[in-house]
Amino acid sequence: MNYKALVLAFIVLPLGLGQAVYGQNVSYKEGIKLTAERIGDRVSAKDIVAVVEFRAATDRFSDRVIDDLIDGLIALDVRVVDRQNLEAVRAEQEYQYSGYVDDESAVSLGHELGASAIILGSGENMADYYRFNFRMLSVETGEILARFSVNVRYDPAMRRLLDERAAHSSGIGTTHFMIGGRLGAGFEINTADEDMVGSGYSPKEKSNTAFNAALYGAYRFNDVWSVQAELNLMLNNGMEISGHGYTVKIDYPTLDIPVLVRWNFIQSPVTAGLLLGPYISLPAGKLNLSVGDRGSALDTKGYTLGIALGFALGYKLGPGSLAADVRYINDFGSLSVREDFGEGMQDANICIRRSINITVGYEFSL
What we know:
Elements: H1 3-18, E1 21-26, H2 28-42, E2 48-55, H3 59-75, E3 79-80, H4 83-93, H5 103-113, E4 117-125, E5 129-138, E6 144-153, H6 156-162, H7 164-167, E7 177-188, E8 191-192, H8 194-197, E9 204-207, E10 209-220, E11 225-243, E12 246-266, E13 270-283, E14 287-291, E15 294-298, E16 300-301, E17 304-317, E18 320-331, E19 336-340, E20 345-349, E21 351-352, E22 354-365
Parallel strand pairs: 1-6, 2-3, 2-4
Antiparallel strand pairs: 4-5, 5-6, 7-10, 7-22, 8-21, 9-11, 10-11, 11-12, 12-13, 12-14, 13-17, 14-15, 16-19, 17-18, 18-22, 19-20
């Protein structure tokens, strides 16, 4: 048996475990618990631990993390230096609150407190989550006993703890804004306007399949509510109308601008939410009209308002998230064209557009 290799394994494996990063995003409470357990695994019953520092955007959040971590260690029967004693020694040794404690000063502080090990930590904004980084140092030797991190998700409780009004200036927790893009198709179920087909009969109607390209941005009030503004380019809107021995085909592009309220009823690890809001639809080019073998390109006029209702999904992947959107849109009115339909030049409405749009894309938090 290779005893050297076996001894080396017993030395290296604990160090490797001490440097593990919890890749799954957890709640703040779970993050504190995991950190306390990791520290507890590295100390004996006779050791005394001092939580010296946690660097964060606000003193309020730093103090909360230290207090909660001390409580978590005590719950595991780890002997911990009382924070009042820590602050008293810091004041006596004239450690500056405005600066960060370096390793040498922290070890010296640990000696004064009679601690066996000291804990130094910091918080880091990772856009979609907040990372706790910790180091555990031996007071006797000054060496790093363990290094570990925990990823904490930005749930409502975490955002309240960060106190975002104070944190905005330092960039911690500023994940209010999101941008993204999607591509897909619109499966239309349109109805021809009377101006296009006349009255007194029911023609055969076949709606087009449109192409949908969307750019959008959102402002998130919290993990549940957000408002989302979009630019949706819809190509090949329209329909085919048959009757009275002829077939009319129309297709036209629009730029739809919705402003939607989003309610996320699932936040992690998959996001899911409902979308609802109004939009304005504007002409984005000419209307192509063909009757039999004759065709022309006509100027599209006016605008129409509508309502959109949808269901959105997201899945964390890389620096952002995959996004999918299934949406129903309904125009309240019609765009129009100027054309001679046998009664001289006149403005004629086209159709009432209804569509089920399915798009997929990618989005980033800023």
